[in-house]
Amino acid sequence: MKSQKLSKNEKVVLEVVKKSTGPIKAYTILSDVKKNGLKAPPQVYRALDKLIKKGKIHRIESKNAYLDCQNSKCKTSSKTAFSICQRCEKVTEILNTKLSKFLSSFKDDAGEEYLEYNLEFYGICKKCKS
Amino acid sequence: MKSQKLSKNEKVVLEVVKKSTGPIKAYTILSDVKKNGLKAPPQVYRALDKLIKKGKIHRIESKNAYLDCQNSKCKTSSKTAFSICQRCEKVTEILNTKLSKFLSSFKDDAGEEYLEYNLEFYGICKKCKS
DNA sequence: CATAAAAGTGTTATATTATAACAAGTTATA
DNA sequence: TATAACTTGTTATAATATAACACTTTTATG
């Protein structure tokens, strides 16, 4: 895991991700940070990559979007679980000890364990159901 | 779930995915199927979408790639788990009753269950370790 | 401190992945 | 046979992401 110190561009991008009410896309971030002087995609993508490595944000693979990490325990981005509402698109990080323990200790049929995983649950959130 | 009957283009695309030794990308498929008369991306993407819905193939989200479903039990693409080797990029579908039962019955902190999920484990496969 | 190595930045161009939109052909079936 | 549902072909373009290179700033350490 890398140092947690953030560079200028990383701070700028992280602020935008944090302010977003849900997962935000790279090019949306780009248009937001133009007022901060960032101009081109590589500046955003570099910052996003670093922020992921530093455990500050997560990438929601099925949405090509980025979400800030809500919990202090999240020191790494290597074990992640999310719930995704198929109606309102809301994404919530799942922090559940039983789940993380189960997945961390899961052995496949060859007896192998895995240090990293990403799990995305899809359903309809409570709000959308009601 | 849709009918399992496949259209002409779906069959052509499925054959290419099946022949591939691992996850295959849409534009790789496209170049392969040009000999079958398919010419443009939408033809491939449409077929891929349908094949996923029909449970014939899976999409590996973290790789933007497609893998044929190896197992007869796989009637749906809504509950999936894969192991991905970070060195050789090999992807294997995980069919494990304990895992699928655990995830299917998993309740989040709000007590909600989920009908669909996708899980990707990352590690180094046995072959690459040795 | 000096200075070299490492990390970060700015920039242009381009690669990769995916969909919109519309016209036309095919199939199922009432 | 009419008609609805599905499938195909096609062009254009949108959306996502990276390569490559020159330059600057920060960090480490002799």
Task: Describe the structure concisely.
Chain A has 130 residues and is of the alpha+beta class. The first copy, chain A, has helices spanning 8-19, 26-33, 41-53, 97-104, 126-129; strands at residues 57-60, 65-68, 79-85, 91-93, 116-123.
Plain-language structure description:
2 copies of one chain form a homodimer. The first copy, chain A, has 130 residues and is of the alpha+beta class. Chain A folds into 2 domains: 8-68, Orthogonal Bundle (Arc Repressor Mutant, subunit A); 79-129, Dna Ligase, domain 1 (2-Layer Sandwich), CATH 3.30.1490. Chain A contains 5 helices and 5 strands, in the order αααββββαβα. Chain A has a 3-stranded mixed beta sheet, covered by helices on one side. In chain A, strand 1 and strand 2 form a beta hairpin. In chain A, helix 1 packs across helix 3 (41-53). The longest helix of chain A has 13 residues, at 41-53. The first copy, chain A, is globular. The termini of chain A are far apart. Chain A binds chain B through residues 61-62, 78, 83, 92, 94, 96, 99, 102-103, 106, 108-110, 112-123, 125-126, and chain B through 61-62, 78, 83, 92, 94, 96, 99, 102-103, 106, 108-110, 112-123, 125-126. Chain A binds a DNA duplex (30 and 30 nucleotides) through helix 1 and helix 3.
